[in-house]
Amino acid sequence: MGRGIVVRRLDLGWFVRPASEVGGPHPRVEPALAYLVRHDGGLLLFDTGIGEADAGTEAHYRPRRRALDEALAGVGVGVGDISMVVNCHLHFDHCGGNPLFGGVPILVQDVELAAARRGDYTVDSLIDFPGAAYEEVRGEVELHPGIWVVPTPGHTDGHQSLVLRRDDGSVVLAGQAHDFASEFASAQLARDAALHGVEQPLPPYPRWLDRLADFDPRRVLFAHDSSVWEPAAERPNPVSTNPVSTNPVRNREASAPRRR
Fold this sequence. Notes:
Elements: E1 6-17, H1 19-22, E2 28-39, E3 42-46, H2 55-61, E4 64-65, H3 68-73, E5 84-86, E6 105-109, H4 110-117, E7 133-137, E8 141-144, E9 147-151, E10 160-166, E11 169-173, H5 181-195, H6 208-214, E12 217-221
Parallel strand pairs: 3-5, 5-6, 6-7, 11-12
Antiparallel strand pairs: 1-2, 1-4, 2-3, 8-9, 9-10, 10-11
């Protein structure tokens, strides 16, 4: 399974997270990364980059965007070639290119779309735009053989990750389930310690890590970190920033800064 899947990382720019949000004396510059997944059923895009926000949010995060159509063209793909969009969540730095995909299914958790539509959550025009065609799911779903959406709540209640399952392990597109690969690694170690019966106190870890472990992840990629998590044991790498072959895939903020 998974022998026909190819994953490409797309660099869609960066933003500056203020020191007040990073818990230190200095701001931090973070990338905005999306992922193009080619499988036998078409082309899937996981996240769509940083949207245009109100003046306060723009000044707060100072984003520099790379146009999505330019990034796609760089890997030989046009906007019209995308058959499905999956957003890890709907903050404006993850769904900025969604309005380019009128009529294209956009898959989100139902609780995430409900939160976005309640207001004071994201940029409203990035959510309900002409031709917006949401496919709401509740919980886990297999989109194609070997391609799974798995809920990974934490950053938002409706956050989800995409798992690309292979015979030799899986690739996880984790979005903002953790901000950094090192944070994911720490959570994995906390889980290992708990499973090995190490006495408390131990740091907590998100319980969805138990579900991800069922997929035997070999690489985990993130939305705001160019680093990649890999397990300590050496195994073949199922994905890189260059195309990698893998097997078929089935079924388908106003004056205050917007959260991201």
